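Lab intake sheet, docking and co-folding queue.

SAMPLE TYPE: protein with bound small molecule
LIGAND NAME: nicotinamide-adenine-dinucleotide
LIGAND FORMAT: SMILES
REQUESTED OUTPUT: full 3D complex as structure tokens
PRIORITY: normal
SUBMITTED BY: R.K., bench team

The fields below were copied directly from the construct record.
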Amino acid sequence: MKRLQLDDQTRVLVLTGAGVSAESGVPTFRGMNGLWEGHQVEEVASPEGFAADPELVWRFYSLRRDGASKVQPNPGHHALARLEAALGERFLLVTQNVDGLHARAGSRRMLAIHGELFQSRCEQCAQPFADAHTYFARPLPTCATCGRAIRPHIVWFGEMLDPAHLEQVYRFIDEAGPKLVFLAIGTSGQVYPASGLVDAAHAVGGKTWLIDAAPSEGYAARFDELVIGKSGEVLPPLFFGP
Ligand SMILES: NC(=O)c1ccc[n+]([C@@H]2O[C@H](COP(=O)([O-])OP(=O)(O)OC[C@H]3O[C@@H](n4cnc5c(N)ncnc54)[C@H](O)[C@@H]3O)[C@@H](O)[C@H]2O)c1
Ligand SMILES: [Zn+2]
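RESULT FIELD (auto-filled):
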């Protein structure tokens, strides 16, 4: 069993994807076959889809809020929180997951680059706020200030990531240089720019690991090390030994 070797100079950047939450019972994107109740996922996760049918989009995210509120973080989430506690500012977690499970497991040095399921924002005023409500039918929520629609605080297909998040990630990579260890966990590497972080890590001389139950071939070829397994089973011994 491989073991991650860290000295007191090592900086660890972790990218997680839907696979990390699979053992908690949250379906992965590929697990949904790219379809939701016969709709292309793009229809319920794009600004065009929201403009065309906000009720459908809110129903989709309301079901996901219901689902995510009933599940618990698994040993993979807990292992990452424990690694953060050991490394402090030499650790940064970048997650593509919106389910909130990393935070519930205790992760704090974390950027949710694809948004947060339990936040909403006005499409005009843009300031996100905590929101666990579900909307399965009209009336849909509107902004008390400007009257425009309230939408899920999710980065949809075709939308940009928060530039402040990206800046923080690239600053962490640059400051780490060859002391960087980059771990991608439970992600298929199909969504840019998250999928490009492995190349950024190599560019500064860092080491890269992919940990995935069923790695995507093309993505796996871009890493130095490959660990095949479920994150809840392989992360605790990888970080802390048997
Ligand atoms: N939990 C969530 O918040 C959630 C769920 C579905 C989709 N999404 C969104 O959809 C997009 C999908 O991209 P993605 O790369 O994150 O997901 P993906 O569905 O494309 O890939 C998931 C990866 O996880 C692996 N996997 C499955 N079970 C695993 C396990 N137990 N342990 C380790 N690996 C496992 C799969 O082999 C696959 O490579 C992202 O943008 C994300 O924001 C988020
Ligand atoms: Zn507003």
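REVIEWER NOTE: Residues 122, 124-125, 143, 145-146, 148 surround zinc ion (ligand 2) (CB under 6 Å).
SIGN-OFF: pending second check by T.M.
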